[in-house]
Amino acid sequence: MIIDLRSDTVTKPTKGMLEAMLTAEVGDDVYKEDPSINALEKRLADMFGMDEALFFPSGSMANQAALKLHTNPGEQVICDKYAHIYNYEGGGASFNSGISCKLIDGHRGMFTAEQAEASINPPDFYHSPLTSLIAIENTTNKGGGACWDFQELKKIKKVANKHQLGYHLDGARLWNALIAKDENTKQYGELFDTISVCLSKGLGCPMGSVLIGNKELMQGALRIRKILGGGMRQVGFAAAAGLYALDHHLERLAEDHKKAKEIGEELSKMSAVKVVEPIETNIVIFELNDNIDETQFLNKLNEKHIKIIVMGSNKLRMVTHLDYTDQMHDKLLSSLKDF
Ligand SMILES: *Cc1c(COP(=O)(O)O)cnc(C)c1O
């Protein structure tokens, strides 16, 4: 039994999901003729109370399309220094959109409305890049699955409105935030101009992300997806997995969160561990004591068939998910106890 806690993307489709995929009705989605894709897009647009949704093969591509929709080359997006769009999309912001990122030195991937406003370049000062977008990430990945305070998101929206900036949400793990904070999709749909959500993380699908937004902005989305190479054909098989996951895998995220908290409690009792970051959702980030060798620590876990990943600066990460069973959880907790 291998306990793989590197990411919530390591899950495999469940039997029910595979069944739904096998029996999916499909068509050519480049012609917008795939009924399953159309149903998924409509369902998500409705869930968020927004006009349109568009399926993408990956979350990175959905975010990259959003950056392109909101900006022109030479302009700037404001985001946190931990942001996925800045750190983990291969430099796509500059490659695809010709834009730069103004990084905010936030806390666990989150910042305040004051920090956002202070990061806006004066539009008349033509020496600096024109600020056109504020991008938020909820939950924050590098920030350890932290959830934003919704009131702060509202304040940032006011800043965006005042300065006529776009407002994008990288909601790869928004599902986790909704469950953890008892929030709903509609309140996010009201706030943001565009929202990307992942089906391939906590929801357990093999692929897929969806970009949701209002008509005016989304008009260009189809063309950008085509340019990025994301137009696919009978991709309703993936949409069927997404529809299945929305029905069956959303509420259960609370289980992942509970397990993550229990792992955190056990870690914080270990002499090798210096600090465990607060756990709000399914991500556990912790730091080893200075006298503990990271490689040795990982090797020892490996011997126990436990896989986790390093985040740099002495930080390690575990992520709970659909395929992390109760049995694995018991084994992990006892392994940590006897470590
Ligand atoms: C995983 C993730 C994405 C998208 O990643 P893909 O691997 O391209 O699907 C985007 N943003 C955040 C915060 C993520 O964690």
TrEMBL record:
CDD domains: TA_like. It holds the Pfam family Beta_elim_lyase. Keywords: Pyridoxal phosphate. It comes from the Bacteria. Its cofactor is pyridoxal 5'-phosphate. InterPro entries: ArAA_b-elim_lyase/Thr_aldolase, Low_specificity_L-TA-like, PyrdxlP-dep_Trfase, PyrdxlP-dep_Trfase_major, PyrdxlP-dep_Trfase_small. The keyword Cytoplasm does not apply. Residues 4-288 form the Aromatic amino acid beta-eliminating lyase/threonine aldolase domain. SUPFAM superfamilies: PLP-dependent transferases. Belongs to the threonine aldolase family. This is Threonine aldolase.
